[in-house]
Amino acid sequence: MRAPPLLLCVALTALVEPGRTQQEPAEAERAEPDILSGIEGTPISSVDAWRAHRPALVKLLENEMFGPMPTERLQVAATEVERDPAALGGAATRTQWVVELSRGKELLSVELLVYVPNEREGLVPAFLGLNFKGNHTVWPDEEIRVPRTWMANDAKFGVKDNRASESARGQRTARWPIDLLVSRGYALATAYYGDLDPDFDDGFRNGLHAVLGDDPARDTLGTIGAWAFGLSHLLDALGKVDGLDQERVAVFGHSRLGKTALWAGATDPRFWFAISNNSGCGGAALSRRRHGETVKRIQEVFPHWFTTRFRRYADHEDDLPFDQHHLIALMAPRPVYVASASGDDWADPRGEFLAAVGATPAWELHGLRGLGGATFPEAPDTALGEGSVGYHLRSGKHDVTAWDWARFLDFADRHRER
Ligand code: GCU
Q1: In ligand 1, which atom is closest to the CA atom of 259?
Q2: Confidence grade of residue 401 (pLDDT, cut at 50, 70, 90)
Q3: How far is the C-alpha of 411 from the C-alpha of 342, rounded, in Å?
Q4: 44 burial class (0-12, 13-18, 19+ CB within 10 angstroms)?
Q5: DSSP alpha helix (H) spans, 110-222
Q6: In 88-158, which ranges are E strands?
Q7: Does pLDDT of 262 surpass 80?
Q8: pLDDT tens-digit map of 326-344
Q9: N or C, fewer C-beta in 10 Å, the chain?
Q10: Nearest atom in ligand 1 to 282's CA
Q11: Over the stretch 69-114, which tens digit does the pLDDT of each residue have?
């Protein structure tokens, strides 16, 4: 029976949320597809089945989103170029390293800055994260070397003619409370992200791509993949640092580098755990929600971050054979932490939370706790998750603060003892 025209009209209106046009789908409140459904749709109901499925899932994200990782690893040669055994008023040893990543004659030089607490029993766990503005911005120590590689011009940070300068020394300490990390017994290692791959679209040619020679990944590896591949090699270099436990290095990143931290953790199982801070679209936020930044918009503005195949999902998120909870779940059974900020609607805090919840069955399968049964925090400045999946909603804007770090440290403490 055909519905009378008036009734049909009412029914259609009910489907459209206020403020949205009819073409815009309602935001997804659940993570789809099911994390425990295999590539062919077969249910995954055991740890063995998860292990068997995992490589195919990594391949899927490589092929459709980030680009396949290079077929071979690069050579790594780390040379200590500076040391202060009494940094932070004697609390830490600061070392700086030139890490050469090479294949054949091609070579890429990355400057790695490391602080290791002097008061320690045995080896200490560490956080490894890339920074946006150069190692000299993370702490005001005079000896920290200023990058000589390409940097986007930024008057606020004294970057002119694509070169960093002295004037930004110590300007990013709020994001890198190294004294707090050291006082809680953790080392910190950081490198300027542009040393690994400059953040602009040049058709996958410069930075790490230039070292890949005739590797098929050279033409298809997005910059996020290149940063992640680089982080994995910096982890190799950390094996040379006195007092640092290479088996307990958590990979951390904010924003585009939060997307990178999740992918680095997914593709290098040696990382102890991963922290994604305000990573949003392409990171922890569910693409199918189309809330804040979308798959289309991110690729219009940052076409080089992903492999070109990912463009087919612009405005076609429902065709994605995965969503971002799959990226998070690739950490299982290792721990993972997702951090959001209430004023960061562009990164879709709720979508980040729902992805962390949607990934949780991957841990439950291993007999571990995730965020099963958790509800989105009613008020900000709330941290959730006593188990292997941590989440918090901080008040304020898109940023990294000491409050965020205190939560990451609490989470690390809980896993340190296990
Ligand atoms: C932009 C971009 C985000 C990204 C952020 C950042 O806002 O749209 O996807 O996370 O930059 O890296 O700071």
Answers
A1: 10
A2: very high
A3: 20
A4: buried
A5: 178-183, 193-196, 208-211
A6: 92-103, 106-117, 124-131
A7: yes
A8: 999 999 999 999 999 999 9
A9: N
A10: 9
A11: 999 999 999 999 999 999 999 999 999 999 999 999 999 999 999 9
Mean confidence (pLDDT) of the chain: 94
Q: Rounded to the nearest whole angstrom, what is the distance from the C-alpha of residue 284 to the centroid of ligand 1?
A: 13
Which helix (H) or strand (E) segment holds residue 382: the answer is: strand 382-384
User: Do 397 and 341 form a contact (C-beta atoms < 8 A)?
Assistant: yes
Q: Quote the ligand 1 centre to 346 CA distance (angstroms).
A: 9
Dihedral sign, CA of 313, 58, 227, 340? positive
CA distances from 295 to 133, 301, 396 (A): 26, 10, 25
DSSP assigned state of 41: S
- The pTM is what? 0.94
pLDDT tens per residue across span 114-162: 999 999 999 999 999 999 999 999 999 999 999 999 999 999 999 999 9
Residue spans of alpha helices (H) in 207-360? 208-211, 223-238, 256-267, 295-301, 324-329, 349-359
Spell out which residues line ligand 1, taking CB within 6 angstroms.
Answer: 255-256, 280-281, 293, 298, 346
- Domain regions of the chain by residue span: 1-66+273-399, 69-198+210-250
Q: What atom in ligand 1 is closest to the CA of residue 255?
A: 10
Ligand 1 atom with the shortest distance to the CA of 281: 9
Distances (CA, A) of 355 to 48, 85, 101, 258, 263: 23, 43, 34, 14, 15
Among 133, 224, 256, which residue has the most ligand 1 atoms within 8 Å of its CB, making it the best to mutate?
A: 256
3-state secondary structure of 318: helix
Measured in Å, residue 278 CA sits from the centre of ligand 1 at 9
Residue of 84, 111, 108, 115 whose CA lies nearest to 97 = 111
Q: Which residue, 369, 349, 371, is CA-closest to 415?
A: 369
Distance 75 CA to ligand 1 centre (A): 31
Mutate to test the pocket of ligand 1, among 227, 293, 296, 340 (most ligand atoms within 8 A of CB): 293
Distance from residue 255's CA to the centre of ligand 1 (Å): 6
Pocket test for ligand 1, best of 199, 255, 400 (most atoms within 8 A of CB): 255
The residues that are catalytic are 255, 398
Provide the token pair at 66. 């980030």
Q: Ligand 1 atom 13: the closest Cα is on which residue?
A: 255
